[in-house]
């Protein structure tokens, strides 16, 4: 009886495990991308990190050559990779090749790191669709996936934090500091300016 029960549990669990997929994207500040995508139905987890460079074990203080990225784990029976990438493109300024919003420089550029031919084809199709919607070129490249390096613990779920941090407006609870930063950078306003009614919102 115990062996039968275990077999049933494995049969139930295995299909769910088979539906799990990962997407790696760079959208400027990884705190913001993590905040945006953790609430998307079908998304299981979002982790901040670094990728795209050649150096091993990058850190926040030394990640030259790497992008700030997030690794999104999702259930592809609930949301497809193509739909996830379409949402990602509509959550950033795909016309800015120098960074995102008030964060400038190579680490803050947008990119899609595709894993294999299926993700590559889906990502390129999503970019082409976005260009048709905008009527202009999208500068966000589709790149081959490289090693994902997880960021320091204090970057994970930063937007939910309760620690007190110092901002330009004085000491604030971390979650409030995050909102102050996001609004000061004009992230949401610029995304709406680029995408209009197509802008991703949650």
When the domains are counted, the total is: 1
What's the mean pLDDT score? Answer: 91
Provide the CATH topology. Peptide Methionine Sulfoxide Reductase, Chain A
| Strand fraction | 15-25%
Number of strands: 10
Helix content: 25-40%
Radius of gyration: 18 Å
Which stretches are poorly predicted, pLDDT < 50 over at least 5 residues? 1-16
Assigned CATH superfamily: Peptide methionine sulphoxide reductase MsrA
Distance between the termini: 47 Å
At CATH level 2, the architecture is 2-Layer Sandwich
Largest sheet: 6 strands, mixed
Q: What structural category do the secondary elements indicate?
A: alpha+beta
Task: Give me the strand/helix succession.
Answer: HEHEEHEEEHEEEEHH
- CATH class annotation: Alpha Beta
What count of helical segments does DSSP give?
6
List keywords for this structure.
24% strand; Peptide Methionine Sulfoxide Reductase, Chain A; 202 residues; 6-stranded mixed beta sheet; disordered N terminus; alpha+beta; two-stranded antiparallel ribbon
């Amino acid at each position: 009886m115990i062996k039968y029960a275990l077999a049933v549990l494995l049969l139930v669990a295995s299909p769910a495990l088979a539906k799990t997929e990962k997407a790696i994207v760079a959208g400027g500040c990884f705190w913001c991308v993590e905040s945006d995508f953790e609430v998307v139905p079908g998304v299981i987890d979002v982790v901040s990190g670094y990728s795209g460079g050649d150096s091993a074990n990058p850190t926040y203080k030394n990640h030259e050559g790497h992008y700030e990225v997030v690794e999104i784990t999702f259930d592809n029976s609930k949301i497809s990779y193509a739909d996830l990438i379409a949402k990602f493109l509509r959550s950033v300024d795909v016309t800015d090749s120098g960074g995102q919003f008030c964060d400038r420089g190579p680490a803050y550029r947008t990119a899609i790191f595709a894993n294999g031919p299926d993700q590559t084809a889906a990502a390129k199709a999503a970019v082409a669709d976005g260009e048709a919607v905008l009527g202009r070129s999208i500068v966000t490249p589709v790149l081959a996936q490289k090693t994902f390096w997880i960021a320091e613990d204090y970057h994970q779920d930063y937007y939910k934090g309760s620690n007190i941090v110092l901002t330009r407006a004085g000491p604030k609870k971390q979650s409030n500091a995050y909102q102050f930063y996001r609004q000061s950078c004009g992230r949401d306003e610029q995304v709406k300016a680029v995408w209009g009614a197509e802008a991703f919102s949650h």
